[in-house]
Every structure is written in structure tokens, then in C-alpha cells.
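Bug: C-alpha cell stream looks shifted between consecutive jobs. Job 1:
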Amino acid sequence: MQATQMRRIIMAGIVGDALGVPFEFKRRGTYVANDMQGFITWHESRGSWSDDTEMSLALLDNLTESEDYAALFDKF
């Protein structure tokens, strides 16, 4: 897999997370996510991502720097 493809996959996950954060814990079919929204479930501003993205970015950062697991846990 090329770096460009990997970057696009990571960005798609981040955008998907930001689209979904306002609707966490809502029942399927009770909302429509067709635009960035904010201040619904977590009262976060539009485009905010969740801890899932934060932890993924910390993992990616650590994997590209070293295999220092203590540093990874500090990032978490």
C-alpha cells in the first residue's frame, strides 16, 4: 500500500469519526448525518473527533517514531 493511500484511509476514518461524534449513543434511524454538526451529544464544536481518533493518531505517531511502548502509553 502506498503512503498516499494510507493517508487517505486515515483521513477518511477521522472525517467519519467527526461526522459520527454528535450522534454517539443515538438510536439508528433517529438522525441524519450529512454535514458536520456540533453541540449534540457531547456539546463539542462542529468537526470535533473522539478519543478513537486521538488514540489512533498517538499510535501512528509512535509507530513512525519508534517502538517505545512506554512513550506510547504516555501519549495515550
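Job 2, same session, no restart:
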Amino acid sequence: MRRKDREITDPSQIRRIMQACTHLNLALCDGDTPYIIPMNFGFEEEDGKWTIYFHSAGIGTKIDLLRKNPQAAFAMTATTRLIEGDLACDYSMAYESVCGKGRIEIVPDGEKIRGLTAVMRQYSAAESFVFDETVVRVTTVLRLSVDAITGKSLDR
């Protein structure tokens, strides 16, 4: 990151920003062309290892692409606020963001509930969740094992 004064590396601050985000943009490889899609997500962090979960249909462009190349990147943004100025070049945006990259894979059936629970925790204050087994069976759960993650804050 060019602006080290805006970099966030503290896991508790990264977690706080991620919890404030409503979605993330997932980037996959489509040959020489990037493919990006907004996704609902959930995450876990254990011993400095970040894992991000998504739910998906079992077919479609995203599934086809990750089967060809499991490398992925992501970006999420929270706390945006326009900063106005006298001149056009004085305008800016206050925000916090988290970006990273890693390897994405389809979660085996026996581990789907863990991923779906992480997604539910992102959007609900409930302590536990009941899942319909019929729906879980036909839902594809994706797991992004994060290799690199960083946060950034610009708040003037």
C-alpha cells in the first residue's frame, strides 16, 4: 500500500470494518479478463487466518470460473462520506475498506452449515440458526482462504 499512514493491519480493526460491510466484491479470473461480482458474505478469523464464506447456486459463471482458476481477490467498503471542497480536486471520500486475495473452493456437504452460519452472523444478531436441510442440500457454499488481507482508512 502506497499510503502507509492509512493502512490498517490490526486484526481487530479489520474485523470491525468487515462487520460494518453489507457486501463484498469478489473478483475471479476469466482468462485474461477479470470477472467481478457483488456477494453477501460471512467470515471467520482464527489465529490470524481469515476465511470468507459465500452461498451460491451450484451452476453459473462464477462456479465455472473458480473451477478453472481458484485464485480470487476481494474488496469491501464501509463508512463512506463525501468530503466537499472549494475546487473539484479538493473533493474526496472518507471511507474504510478491506481488500485481500486468496484461494476459493466449494465447501464439502459436511461443512456447509459452518459457512452458512458465518454468513448469517454477518447480517443477524441471532445467536443460533436453524437451516432447512432441503435448501442446504441444493445450496453451494464457497470458502475463500485468505492469503493476504489489509485495511485502509481515509477519514478527514
